[in-house]
């Protein structure tokens, strides 16, 4: 076919032009593919973070969270727990002598009130497919030197002597004298002289002479009085961290799941803990090392990357261990529920809300609102600008490619004029130029896919990570923090690796844009060419 | 019998506020197989006259009849077909497609291509003495060779009329002479009607009829 040979000759012998226009198209196409891929990957990453519940196989999260100002509205029992748990009382004198080193851990469920785990039996099996319980505790860890916090005053030990003379009444005296007379008569009847020495002795024995004077000595009991001192200076350091008891019997639902262990292994038996990487690094914990909490020793068996950002802890242990540490056997304060199907999420939430008082049911849309950080900014940025940027890139591509194409057609004025002069009809000329541009478009599309894949590989190579900050659970640390000056819990910041993935649809879209731009430009150029007059062939171009 | 008939041809161009009469009231009669030389200095309007006769441009006023067809009245598409079937053009700048070989440049004119047509391409190249250069690109050919390829291209459709616009303008006089000789032979041996535009007087000796033009008018 002559037309094809002409096409081939035109493209290969003017390869500079072919390459320039193709590269222009390729770049536009690559930019579009990359932008869309990055945007899609961002929103995928965002979805993952924004729907943390899904990461742990959960539809709804149930807790009993009480705000301080709501305490007065609670029933007595609940209020008592809320108040007790928010009050940290420390009796240093029980920890040892002043000047001695001490460590102390106080574990509190905080304002996340507990409920009996047996309550979960009330869950409606038709609405709930799976559930897991958990106990999230705030641990206030204190260590330092026991301060001299009381003045001790020793009192007592004085001896007090006393003496007192009593006056006898007339009746008493008469009674005494009567008794003497009676005894003297009895003695005489026995043949004993009351005035004899023996008689006097027997007289004193049977009728004792009443003492009119009482004297003695009292010793004041010794006592140590301890007086609390209002303020004391000490080097006591306070740290807060969160500890979660995990229902290790569930592998598909729970505060953490076995597949979130990034190093070491999952909890298998009592006495084991896993820590988040950040916490392990902060505390210099090493795998298989020992961690003492509340006087009990635990072995760090793994590093976990928790996905339930809204209810994350620094340390995780088995639920039983946590319950024992906190002295809350059979109590939990988090319930994760997987509904039997998507339609049942709402009814399941309502059903759960009816079982426990003061219950707070959280679903995905609520957790999403708590996320902020560079991931969210980047994502909202792309959401905002992706449309505009893409349109600008596409327009720029169309304009540049059209200009280049028209320019190249302008250079062929005499050639096209000649073709017309020797009998080429307009449609043949248009067909030829459009065909050239289709081929250039295809080359551009292929190069564009190559460039885009390269750019995506490069982006992934540089390990761009974005952070997402999730507002931490308010577990009532406010009180403790105020009293103990512990560090503020800023919530958890998760770093999300930007892993740019491409889909064939996006590649196809990018290619189509290159092709469309080229055909558009080709058509413009061809129309311009068709308008050229054959006498252009005669124009002397020198 | 008059083959080409031009009556009161007027071609006006606007150049800013001025109107230029490039061709101004020319009448022309030409018989089949005749060799017409149009001679004049540059800017005289001789090329414009050739373009009007060749149906590449339309006159402002006046009529042109070729073989009893009034080409000033037919559509662009019909005019294109007419050019392809009846006319062969030779240009001063050769106007070969730079990306096509000599043979492909000739082939570009053929409407329906077949094996016999390709054979014909070889024949016309042989006719102009360039069969050895069939697969060369124009850039590898000398000016004379390029013009001979252009002549071969003009001949491939076996046109009745050959229109040559200063075909020797870019060639040295010896090569130019050989090109004129080819045209002369085509006129005499192949009975082609030839219209040759030139600014040189020497072409007169090959012509059956010569018109000299100045300022768009026959002098």
Automatic annotation (TrEMBL), chain A:
Database matches in Pfam families: FtsX, MacB_PCD
The record's section on InterPro entries has:
ABC3_permease_C, MacB_PCD, Macrolide_Exporter_MacB
The membrane-spanning stretches of this chain are 21-42, 385-407, 438-459, 501-527
Q: What is its main location?
A: membrane
Q: Where is this region: Disordered?
A: 190-215
Identify its membrane topology class.
Multi-pass membrane protein
Q: Give GO MF terms, alphabetically.
A: transmembrane transporter activity
Domain MacB-like periplasmic core: from-to ranges = 204-352
Q: Where is the ABC3 transporter permease C-terminal domain?
A: 388-534
Q: Where in the cell is it found?
A: Cell membrane
* Protein keywords: Cell membrane, Membrane, Transmembrane, Transmembrane helix
A Gene Ontology term for the protein's cellular component: plasma membrane
**In which family does this protein belong, per the annotation?**
Belongs to the ABC-4 integral membrane protein family.
Query: What is the protein's name according to its record?
Result: Uncharacterized protein
Name the species this protein comes from: Candidatus Kerfeldbacteria bacterium CG08_land_8_20_14_0_20_40_16
TrEMBL record, chain B:
Keyword hit for ATP-binding: yes
Please indicate if the UniProt record lists Acetylation as a keyword: no
Record InterPro entries: AAA+_ATPase, ABC_transporter-like_ATP-bd, ABC_transporter-like_CS, ABC_transpr_LolD-like, MacB-like_ATP-bd, P-loop_NTPase
Cellular component GO terms held in the UniProt record: membrane protein complex; plasma membrane
**ABC transporter domain sequence ranges:** 4-219
Q: Which UniProt keywords apply?
A: ATP-binding, Nucleotide-binding, Transport
Task: Note the superkingdom of the native organism.
Answer: Bacteria
In Gene Ontology terms, what is one molecular function of this protein? ATP hydrolysis activity
The family database entries (SMART domains) matched by this protein are listed as: AAA
Protein name in the entry: ABC transporter domain-containing protein
């Amino acid at each position: 076919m002559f037309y094809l040979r002409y096409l081939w000759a035109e493209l290969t012998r003017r390869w500079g032009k072919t390459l320039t226009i193709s590269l222009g198209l390729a770049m536009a196409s690559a930019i579009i593919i990359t932008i869309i891929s990055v945007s899609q990957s961002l929103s995928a990453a965002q979805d993952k973070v924004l729907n943390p519940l899904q990461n742990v196989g959960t539809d709804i999260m149930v807790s009993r969270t009480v705000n301080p100002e709501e305490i007065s509205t609670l029933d007595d029992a609940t209020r008592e727990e809320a108040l007790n748990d928010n009050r940290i009382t420390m009796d240093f004198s029980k920890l040892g002598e002043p000047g001695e080193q001490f460590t102390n851990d106080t574990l509190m469920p905080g304002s996340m009130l507990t409920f009996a785990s047996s309550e979960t039996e009330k869950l409606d099996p038709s609405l709930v497919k799976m559930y897991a319980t958990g106990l999230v505790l705030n641990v206030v860890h204190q260590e330092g030197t026991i301060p001299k916090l009381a003045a001790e005053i020793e009192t007592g030990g004085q001896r007090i002597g006393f003496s007192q003379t009593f006056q006898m009444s007339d009746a008493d005296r008469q009674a005494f004298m009567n008794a003497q007379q009676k005894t003297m008569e009895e003695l005489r009847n026995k043949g004993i002289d009351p005035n004899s020495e023996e008689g006097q002795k027997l007289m004193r024995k049977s009728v004792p002479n009443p003492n009119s004077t009482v004297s003695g000595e009292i010793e004041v009991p010794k006592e140590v009085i301890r007086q609390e001192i209002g303020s004391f200076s000490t080097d006591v350091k306070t740290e807060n961290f969160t500890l979660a008891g995990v229902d290790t019997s569930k592998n598909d639902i729970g505060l953490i799941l076995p597949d979130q262990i990034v190093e070491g292994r999952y909890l298998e038996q009592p006495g084991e803990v896993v820590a988040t990487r950040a916490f392990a690094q902060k505390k210099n914990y090493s795998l298989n090392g020992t961690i003492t909490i509340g006087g009990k020793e635990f072995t760090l068996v793994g590093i976990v990357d928790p996905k339930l950002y809204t209810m994350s802890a620094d340390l995780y242990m088995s639920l039983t261990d946590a319950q024992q540490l906190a002295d809350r056997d059979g109590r939990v304060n988090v319930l994760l529920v997987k509904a039997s199907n998507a339609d049942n999420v709402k009814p399941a939430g309502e059903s759960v809300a009816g079982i426990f008082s003061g219950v707070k049911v959280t679903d995905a849309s609520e957790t999403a609102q708590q996320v902020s950080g560079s991931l969210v900014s980047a994502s909202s940025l792309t959401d905002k600008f992706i449309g505009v940027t893409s349109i600008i890139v596409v327009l720029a591509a169309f304009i540049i490619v059209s200009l280049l194409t028209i320019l190249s057609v302008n250079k062929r004025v005499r050639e096209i004029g000649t073709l017309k002069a020797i009998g080429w009809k307009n449609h043949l000329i248009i067909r030829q130029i459009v065909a050239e541009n289709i081929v250039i478009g295809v080359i551009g599309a292929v190069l564009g896919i190559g460039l885009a894949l390269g750019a995506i590989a490069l982006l992934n190579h540089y390990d761009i990570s974005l952070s997402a900050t999730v507002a931490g659970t308010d577990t009532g640390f406010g009180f403790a923090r105020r009293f103990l000056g512990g560090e503020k819990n800023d919530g958890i910041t998760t770093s999300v690796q930007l892993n740019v993935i491409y889909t064939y649809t996006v590649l196809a879209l990018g290619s189509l844009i290159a092709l469309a731009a080229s055909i558009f430009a080709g058509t413009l150029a061809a129309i311009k060419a068709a308008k050229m007059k054959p006498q252009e062939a005669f124009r002397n171009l020198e | 019998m008059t083959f080409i008939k031009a009556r009161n041809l007027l071609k006006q161009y606007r150049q800013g506020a001025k109107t230029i009469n490039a061709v101004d009231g020319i009448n022309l009669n030409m018989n089949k197989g005749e060799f017409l030389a149009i001679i004049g200095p540059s800017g005289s309007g001789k090329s414009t006259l050739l373009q009007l006769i060749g149906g590449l441009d339309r006159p402002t006023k006046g009529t042109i009849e070729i073989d009893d067809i009034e080409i000033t009245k037919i559509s662009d598409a019909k005019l294109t077909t007419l050019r392809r079937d009846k006319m062969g053009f030779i240009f001063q700048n050769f106007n070969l497609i730079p990306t096509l070989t000599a043979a492909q440049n000739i082939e570009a004119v053929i409407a329906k291509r077949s094996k016999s047509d390709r054979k014909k391409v070889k024949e016309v190249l042989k006719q102009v003495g360039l069969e050895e250069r069939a697969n060369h690109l124009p850039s590898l050919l000398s000016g004379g060779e390029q013009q001979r390829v252009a002549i071969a291209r003009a001949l491939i459709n076996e046109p009745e009329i050959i229109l040559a616009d200063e075909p020797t303008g870019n060639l040295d006089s010896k090569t130019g002479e050989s090109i004129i000789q080819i045209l002369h032979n085509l006129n005499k041996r192949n009975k082609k009607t030839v219209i040759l535009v030139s600014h040189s007087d020497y072409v007169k000796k090959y012509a059956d009829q010569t018109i000299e033009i100045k300022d768009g008018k026959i002098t």
